Amino acid sequence: MGDTYRWKSENVSTSEVANEILRIDEIEQCIVVGAKIENHEGRCGYAILQTMTGNQEKLPDKLNILNKVADQVFNHLPHYARPCFIRFDTIKLNENHKISTKAFRNPTLPLGKTGKWEVFYLDNKTKSYKVLDESTYENIVEGRIRI
What we know:
The chain has helices at 14-21, 59-76, 134-141; strands at residues 4-7, 10-13, 27-36, 43-51, 85-88, 119-123, 128-131. It is α+β, with helices and mostly antiparallel strands. The protein has one domain (4-141): ANL, C-terminal domain (GMP Synthetase, Chain A, domain 3, 2-Layer Sandwich), CATH 3.30.300. The chain has a five-stranded mixed β-sheet. Strands 1-2 form a two-stranded antiparallel sheet. The radius of gyration is 14 Å and the shape is globular. The protein starts with a strand and ends in a 6-residue tail after the last helix.
């Protein structure tokens, strides 16, 4: 079955989520991991994407791609399996020519270990991904924004 994480009392297959996202033409590689959020039980979905251009897109183009991702996950995945967070990053193959998820496990929210990651969160009200900042993340942690 592969890797799974538990969110909203459900087991989620990372490969099932990644395969849905990979149906989008602009996405070359996708890794899905579970991310821990303070004050929330389990781990929510966190997807790392690499586009066909190696993530060279500017923000408006990234948002356009994320709109396609949002449409795909809202139409084809149950609510608990939709990635709550997404970031664009380079996904390298290991010496066996396979994708290693090891480097992407346990992501640090909201902006990564360096504080410079550009992370997007799923706004369930607008059914779209939006840029995540520290105040929005605090609202998520405190339960004022539901994910």
